[in-house]
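Course assignment 3, question 2. Fill in each field.
Student: A.L.
Task: Predict the tertiary structure for the chain below.
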Amino acid sequence: MRKLLSILVVAAVVFSSGCSSQTLQDAISSEYGKYDKPEILYHNDEVGVVILLTKDDKNNFIICRSSYEKNGFNRYVLDTTNDYSMIVDIGKKSEFIQLDTIGNSTDTPLNIVWGGVFHYPRAKQIAYKVHDGQEMIVENLVNINKKHVFVDVLSNEVTDSYKLTFDVIDNEGNVLFSYN
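Answer field:
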């Protein structure tokens, strides 16, 4: 009986850890590492957001935004249901900004503004505005990290109909690029 109980406990542990990984890097490598080793550009354990750079089957660089959680065994589990990815040319002057809602069908959706600024080495911040055409919904200044991405978690609910404008700013407050 003791042996059977031990086997059931081991089976329960293995089953409950499921498709989890000991590190976030291992979790994203198993999902996104088919053509290249993914590089984590940003992650936040409090809200469970990870942004990574990898390559697709045509050798294009892609940036992916995914979400994850830590299970009861302190292991990482990706939730790829609401993933977003796009091809990005990191060798040219390119910048992008996204307005995303992760977990639309849950009781606690997460609204974020995120993006990347590549090939502007002096870029330090993004000044962005979210508006519905008439009314300002959110206006904020967010830092760009050393991997050239930024993320801002919003307390406001956002929709696809909202518009985004932004300025790329250097550490002296000069505007390097504007998108209006």
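Instructor remarks: Residues 90-180 form a domain with the Immunoglobulin-like fold (CATH 2.60.40). The helical segments are 2-17, 24-32.
Grade: pending
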